[in-house]
Design brief:
Elements: H1 5-26, H2 32-52, H3 64-85, H4 91-116, H5 118-121, H6 128-167
Amino acid sequence: MFLSSIGIVHFASSIISLLFGTLALIKPKGTKNHKRIGYIYTIAMSVLLATSFMIYRLHGTFGVLHWFAVISSITLLLGIIPMFIKKPTNYLQLHLSFMYWSVIGLYCAFFAEVLTRIPFILKVNSNIIPIFYSLVGIATAVVSIIGSIYFRKYKESWMNLIEDSTTKK
């Protein structure tokens, strides 16, 4: 299998993004440590997304996976911009929501990548594209549903923790 320098950077930034995105979700919010973790996540995700637009191995052209990268880029930007401009008044809620979904989107991509390797491991010889996209869809749906349940369950308590940490400053 051919690995390009872009592929290596893409892979490395994906590992860093997964690690620091997970830490951002599970560590206390609003602390200096959270901000550092968040900056590392944002930089790594930016590199990951930039390199994703340079990879055309599947179809040779801009494809559906690139559109997922566009959505991920928008989600990341909408999570970061409110923290810099401190607007609108619910900017912390916007930050929490969009950054949470940025990380969940990353997990969707991770599990889709893992699942789409199965046919190659099993040496499936039929037309791989329908199988590939079916597995991408399954991974995305399952992770999104689990992420949605978790988000609905904990969003209010997370917002209370953020508000408590910002009022103590």
